[in-house]
Every structure is written in structure tokens, then in C-alpha cells.
Amino acid sequence: MIFFWAFVVGGIICVIGQILMDVFKLTPAHTLTTFVVFGAILDGLGLYEPLIDFAGAGATVPITSFGNSLVHGAMAEAEEHGLIGVVTGMFEVTSSGISAAIIFGVIGALLFKPKG
Questions:
Q1: How far apart are CA 46 and CA 39, in angstroms?
Q2: Which of 30, 38, 68, 114 could form a disulfide with 26 if both were Cys (CB 3.0 to 4.6 A apart)?
Q3: How far apart are CA 95 and CA 114, in angstroms?
Q4: pTM over 0.85
Q5: 24 lies in some domain
Q6: Which residues contact 78 (CB under 8 A, 6 or more apart)?
Q7: pLDDT in tens, 72-106
Q8: Are 58 and 7 in contact (CB under 8 A)?
Q9: Could you list the residue range(s) of the whole structural domain that residue 80 is in?
Q10: Nearest CA-CA partner of 38 in 20, 65, 57, 56
Q11: Would you say residue 116 lies in a domain?
Q12: Rounded to an integer, what distance in angstroms lies between the CA atom of residue 77 and that of residue 81?
């Protein structure tokens, strides 16, 4: 059943993104930013963790999870280190994902001939 709910929740997030681009004529960059901010707001309100518990990968794979990670890391480090923890917490939690994206992007560019 977890696969079904992951598919449904992930699909709903994708449908919302498509509506933002088709109906409201937002660019992909605006849609991406909207989702990151929306994920951050949901985590700040304490609503994103229950969504992850319910939908699993359907909530952790989309870009909304990046906003969740930023706020989650900042709040956790702020409790331990104060104001400086807000800044360091965001980077500490998300650094491995960003580093992996850069490394795999470079490897992909080296292995395959980029068009353009």
C-alpha cells in the first residue's frame, strides 16, 4: 500500500506543478522556487514530516523535500548553536545531496556528449 500512496502523493505534487506552468504560466524556475518555499513552509508548520511518514518516497523525492530539508536542518542546528546554527544547519543537511548532484552531473557530462 505504501507504493500506492507514494505514487498518489508524488503524482499530486507533479500535477500541481503542471497546473502552475500551464494555467498560471509560471516558468519552470518559478515553479521550482514555489515548491521549495512551499516545502519549507510545510516543514515550519510541522506538516511535512507526517506527509513523509504517510507517503514515503512520494514526499521525499519531489523538490518540496529540499525546502523541508533546509528548514529542518536550520531549526535543528538553531536549537543547538543559536543564530549561527540557522545558517550552518541548512548547508550541513543538504550538502551531501548538492554535492552528489554536482559530481554525477560532471560524470554524466564526461561520459555523454552534451548537445548545444
A1: 10
A2: 30
A3: 26
A4: no
A5: yes
A6: 85, 86, 89
A7: 889 989 999 998 888 888 888 888 888 888 899 89
A8: yes
A9: 2-111
A10: 65
A11: no
A12: 6
